[in-house]
Input
Amino acid sequence: MTTPVTIPLIRGRVARGVAAPRQPKPRWLRVRAPGSSGYLRVKRILRGLDLNTVCEEAGCPNIGECWHHGTATFMILGDVCTRSCGYCNVVHGTPRALDGDEPQRVADAVGTLGLAYVVVTSVDRDDLPDGGASVFAAVVREIRRRAPDCRVELLVPDFAGRAAPLERVLDAGPDVLNHNVETVERLYRAARPGGRYRRALDLLARARRHRPATPTKSGVMVGLGETQAELRATLADLREVGCDILTIGQYLRPSAAHLPVERYYHPDEFAELRTHALTLGFRHVESGPLVRSSYHAREQADACAGAGPE
Output
C-alpha cells in the first residue's frame, strides 16, 4: 500500500523584540513524542538523501503521526529564508546557492518511500529572479518521471506578486496549487512583513484563471489576535477568489522570541469554523487545533477529485 508524502524544510529563530510569557497549552494540544519504527525509517531515508523537511524545521506537532505512516513534506530551495515572519521557526538570512541535484533527490525519496501523494514547499527566495519557480517545475517533472502515478501538491511562496513564475509552476502540472494566506489582513504587518494580504489572494485568483482545472488551496492560523469578524471576512475573501480547499489550525509559538499566542481555540470552535466555511462553498475544509497545511493532504485532494472548478 502506498502512502502520501509532504516535504518542506525550515529552521531557525526569528527575533521579535521583548519576549512575552508563554501560555500553558491546553490538553487537546498534547501529542506523543515521535520514535516509532516508521518514523525512524522516514528519518533515515531523508537523512541519506540530504533532504529538508518542514516537519522538523517548523516543529510540526504531527511529525510523529505523519512520519509513522510514511508521510512528510519536502522543503526545497535550501533551509534559509529571505523573509522573517513573526510566527515562523525558519532561519532567515542570506541563502546558499541552489542545489542542482535537489529535484532528483526529492524524486528518489518519493520512489523509495513508495508515495502516492507528495507535498513540496520551499523557503522564500526573493534573491532569485524567478523566486525558485524553475526548481518547483523541475521537481514536478522529476517526480513524474520516477513515480508517474504519484500526485503532487505544491505549496508555493508568493513570487513577489510576479505572474510569470507562478505560470511556470502551474504549467509543470501540479495536482493541487497551495498558497497560505496565514492570517487576517490587519495582522500582516506583524506576522508577515515581507508579504501582502491582497498579493496572496491575487496569486490564488491568478492560478484559477491560468489553470481552471487545478484545485487551489490555502490555510489560516488562528490565535494571533484576530477577531471573529476578521476571520470570517478572510474566509469569504478566499472563496471570492475561488479557493477550493481550506485548512484552519492553531498557531503555536515556536519560541519566546516569536509572536505570542493571544488565545487557544477550543476544538468546538474549530468545528464551528469548518461548518461556516463549508456554507461559503469550500469543497473541503480541514479544521482543528493540530491541523497544518499538509496534514491529511491526500484526503483533502481526494475530496476534490472528479469535480470540476466552480
Q: What stands out?
A: The first strand starts at residue 3 and ends at 7. Residues 103 and 139 are 4 Å apart (CA to CA). Residues 1-20 have pLDDT under 50 and may be disordered.
